[in-house]
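note to self: dont lose this again. the chain is below, predicted strucutre after it. 284 aa total, dont forget to put it in the shared folder this time
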Amino acid sequence: MTITVALVTRNRAEDVRECINSLLVQDLIPNEILVIDNASEDNTKEVVDSFSSEIIKYIYCSDIGVSFARNAALYHAVGDVLCYLDDDSVAEKDWTLQIVKCFEKYKCAGIQGFIDNYYPKHAAAILTQFQRDMIEELCTTKGYVTTPTFCAAGNLSFDLSKVKKYDLEFNTNLKAGEEQDYCRRLMERNEQITYLKDSIIYHKWKKNSKEYLIRRYKTGISQASQQKLVSESVNDRFTSGLSKVDILKKLYDYSLEMPFYLRFKLFSLLILSNIVKKIGYLKA
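---
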């Protein structure tokens, strides 16, 4: 199978440099790396042009929004497999190899890989990783994604021969959660999305508390927007989960070995983030 990796980026030139470097040393080098520049105003193009590799292709997307850029990747990709990777991520050395092995073994339509934390000492990043790990328990069963809430384009791959037959595109009207909506529509067509924990990337989660809270606000908007698009039965899947008490207990266990000041910050940030997320949900 041939591989296209797509990086959607906007004003993150140095992150793009680090990300591309991690792709050029893969055990299985991609056949194509698409850098979809979503109208950057920094030196992203100069950074991409500094690489001499012929597999790297720069594509400028003037319509601002990740859905426009991800659709551009769908249009331009020539590989059998299209792997989406966030520009502020670094791929483990066997990332592409694990993805190809999984597609060849399971013949699935998509693969959700494992997203790990690039910043293990920052409260906001730790809390994001905790929430990501927690939702894994609710949304995956026996190696498969059961609820599209879990899908994240930071490490999400598709067999293009399967997804293109439905002529699906990312919904450009959504402000957030467009990859979850895309995967939901695939799953409604009885296509499977495998959860592959051996396909690892390290994501630069927001380490600034303010940026983290903005992200949680957008998560609330995303949840509300998606519920307007789907049936009542799917609404239940989006809103089901652990109780607030269960979440606090899990965070307590998760943070046992951490210093007290960091644990206090985690709990405070979690409570505040839930309020912010609810505001985003109600305003959507």
